[in-house]
């Protein structure tokens, strides 16, 4: 099937420039992960790369503590941006990374909203105790569907298709050892090697049909699972995961499983933990913005709670690092948290 997935009427949340508009967010949040997702998938409401850059440049003018930097270019020559909030070099630092996979966009939408909050005082005092680095939309070519391969089989309708791979059809999240691609080079040479980073959350989207304990999940999380990672780094990763789990899972709309991930160090969750001693957390949110597998794609009715899930994740983790409470987290929940499994299709 091409381009046209579902035919039901769209009553989803409107998202413009990463900002949820009006009250529909609340009802979308209320729908939660039990919502099936079978409605039109239209990419036109997603923030484009140019809109994102425009937003970031305006925020930099508005926000005294924010600094915007270009750390490199994509295959197609798009500038890759780093958003910096460095208030005190002695404070711990967290890096948030979105859209290594270009078709996983709601994490970027939520991250832009988080950036806006940092400037409006909604997160007052948070920057006193933590430095925040953000690389949004690392794979901008994939996000814009500006690639050197065919997207004919991709299912979303709208102005553009979005693809996991970069313009040269490479999976950036398998390039963290060789670093052949300009996007991964920019991240390693101009961010990971340059700053003293303690924590990182790598934000992704997974398929739409994963469940835990018989209930569809809003996402899944995992710490570094390579045996080469320092045990202390892994423990701090688990603490970071505890902060996120305790923030999201008790909400009515949040339900998290354990991601079943491998030990390859070509993946950022593992490789970056080993190479830089950074405590990493993978967060896979439910459903992609586009794909050639229909079951991976989730319609826009779910945008509200997934964007909120990102905003809350970023806010809670930055807060816990800022006030030091991250170091008192109980990590024993990891021992009982069930791995998610894929719901059998009807
Ligand atoms: Zn991904």
From TrEMBL:
Keywords of the record, alphabetical order, are: Carboxypeptidase, Hydrolase, Metal-binding, Metalloprotease, Protease, Signal, Zinc
Please state the span of the N-terminal signal peptide per the UniProt entry: 1-28
Q: Which SUPFAM superfamilies match?
A: Zn-dependent exopeptidases
InterPro entries on file: CARBOXYPEPT_ZN_1, Peptidase_M14
Q: Name one GO molecular function term.
A: carboxypeptidase activity
* Pfam families, per the entry: Peptidase_M14
List residues of the Peptidase M14 domain.
Answer: 45-346
Q: Which cofactor does it need?
A: Zn(2+)
Q: Which family does it belong to?
A: Belongs to the peptidase M14 family.
User: What is the name listed in the Swiss-Prot or TrEMBL entry for this protein?
Assistant: M14 family zinc carboxypeptidase
Source organism of this protein record: Oceanobacillus longus
Upper taxonomic classification of the species? Answer: Bacteria, Bacillati, Bacillota, Bacilli, Bacillales
